[in-house]
Amino acid sequence: MKLNIFLKKGIIFISFLALAGGLSGCGIQSIPQAKNQTEASLAEVTNQYKRRADLVPNLVSVVKGYAKHEQDTFTQVTEARAKATSITIDPSNATPAQLNQYAQSQGQLSQALGKLMMITENYPNLKADAQFRDLQAQLEGTENRITVARQRYIESIKEFNNLISVPPTSFTNSLIYHHPKMAQWDVSEAEKTKNEQAPEVKF
């Protein structure tokens, strides 16, 4: 009797493992997991952009102390920051249009910051300021984090799109989830211009 019960439990357990493996392999689990990962990755991108935006007021304030005549640049940075921080993204409900608008505004802030950092080359006393050097280091670290976070987001979108468009998991998506492919993150035109035209600034 005990042997029969043991065998039945063993068969049930093995059947459960086989079913779980089959569900995972056909996308029942992997598709929602991949969607969750894209949302988490986008949240990290927005978090790092917010970190950068928080640095901008202090950076502008320090530069103003040494470069009072660069008012046009300060205005561009301030306005770009205001626009970038006025756009918020809900990772679970973001549309391609919203993401494009968000990326464009962040690109404009990147471009404005690039101009700000270029003018600092003309002020040796500013470059020697300890607070300015600290802010430069923080900005550099944040820009690196943004790059990493964006790359992870791009990879998570690629994985999700593969799951919903490549068999056999695409069949599960067609039958159950009906998720459309996600628009891939793209570098904004402002950032492309910045990368092509602006000289590299070493922090």
Q: Can you characterise this structure?
A:
The chain is mainly alpha-helical. The chain is 79% helix and 0% strand. The chain has helices at 2-26, 30-66, 71-86, 96-119, 124-127, 130-165, 169-177, 189-197. Helix 2 packs antiparallel against helix 3 (71-86) and helix 6 packs across helix 7.
Number of helices: 8
Number of strands: 0
Largest sheet: none
Shape: elongated
Q: Which quaternary structure do these chains form?
A: single chain
- Segments where pLDDT lies below 50 for 5+ residues? 13-23, 193-203
- Terminal-residue CA separation: 76 Å
Topology overview:
Blueprint: H1 2-26, H2 30-66, H3 71-86, H4 96-119, H5 124-127, H6 130-165, H7 169-177, H8 189-197
Question: What labels would you give this structure?
Answer:
203 residues; disordered C terminus; mainly alpha; 79% helix; elongated
Summarize the entry for a quick read.
With 203 residues, the chain is an all-alpha fold.
